[in-house]
Design a protein that fits this description.
The complex is a heterodimer.
Chain A (H helix, E strand, L loop, with lengths): L15 H24 L8 H21 L7 H18 L3 H12 L3 H36 L13
Chain B lengths: L2 H29 L6 H24 L3 H15 L3 H12 L3 H28 L1
Helix pairs in contact in B: 1-2, 1-3, 2-3, 2-5, 4-5
The chains are: A mainly alpha, B mainly alpha.
Protein name (chain A): Fluoride-specific ion channel FluC
Pfam families (chain A): CRCB
Family (chain A): Belongs to the fluoride channel Fluc/FEX (TC 1.A.43) family.
């Protein structure tokens, strides 16, 4: 592939380079999540490491997607940032499967109170953190739109 | 399996999980465009079932702890995503679909826990 005009640009999820980008980001995000799980112990049935990763990741993804948001088609650079950092890194950093397993084990161990509290805290803090990230990201996006050079790459208009 | 090699293998499995999510998500979205984020829901529920199966094998059948690290922490962790589920929940609220938003957040959690329990239950009886 030369990168010259491609008559039928393939969808992003079938582009090997973009899949590789998501894979690399996901590996880094997974390292962060695994590292947190090694560093932060489970306290009273609360999987604090999972909670921290999920809440921080929800904030960061809300911020990233909102800060990258621009009118018009997405540029190539913006798409790479969204896929590498968002879909890859933050998607790999956060986890739903560990959350589900931890909640299930709390129920199985006869501690439904902690299970429900852990689940509720994760969802409430997750939504709140995501909203906070979006609000902050919108400010950044507005600042860049007001003062920015307006140099968004118009050639990268290929859809997401 | 510990040390640097173990850490790197967990990273690789997490990367493969994230890449698989990207491909599955794109394939599902290409087929059906709906307000409700079915792609992410399906991915999170499927990954939760898989973590149940793997952890069941570790807990009930003495499968090596390596499976826990590579498949549960690595692949399932990279495959499933909490951050996208939250962003999609907030997007539903912003588009005046609060009911769907609540269904997405609560429904995914209930379905994921149930799927994980089903995976664990399946391996328990095998």
């Amino acid at each position: 592939m030369t990168g010259d005009a491609v008559p039928h640009p393939r969808p992003a999820h079938l582009d090997p380079a973009l899949i590789g980008l998501v894979l690399a980001g996901g590996a880094v995000g997974t390292a962060g999540r695994y590292g947190l799980s090694l560093a932060i112990p489970v306290v009273g049935g609360w999987h604090v490491a999972t909670l921290v990763a999920n809440v921080v990741g929800a904030f960061a993804l809300g911020f990233l997607l909102e800060a990258l948001l621009r009118p018009g088609a997405e540029s190539r650079r913006t798409r790479r940032l969204r896929l590498g950092l968002g879909t890859g890194l933050l998607g790999g950093f956060t986890t739903f499967s560990s959350l589900a397993f931890e909640i299930e084990r709390l129920f199985a161990d006869g501690d439904p109170g902690t299970a429900l509290a852990y689940a509720a805290a994760t969802l409430v803090l997750g939504v709140a953190a995501c909203v906070a990230g979006i609000v902050l990201g919108a400010r950044v996006s507005a600042m860049r739109t007001d003062t920015g050079p307006g140099s968004a790459d118009p050639s990268g208009g290929a859809a997401r | 399996m510990t040390g640097v090699l173990g850490f790197v293998l967990v990273m690789v499995c997490g990367g493969l999980g994230a890449a698989a999510r990207f491909v599955v998500d794109g394939a599902v979205r290409a087929r059906r465009r709906t307000a409700f984020p079915w792609a992410t829901v399906s991915i999170n529920v499927a990954g939760s079932f898989l973590i149940g199966v793997v952890m069941g094998a570790v807990l009930f059948h003495d499968a090596a702890e390596t499976w826990h690290l590579l498949v549960a922490t690595g692949f399932c962790g990279g495959f499933t995503t909490f951050s996208t589920a939250m962003v999609e929940t907030v997007r539903l609220v912003r588009s005046d679909r609060a009911g769907l938003a609540a269904l997405n957040a609560l429904g995914t959690t209930v379905a994921a826990v149930a799927a994980c329990a089903a995976g664990l239950g399946l391996t328990a009886v095998l």
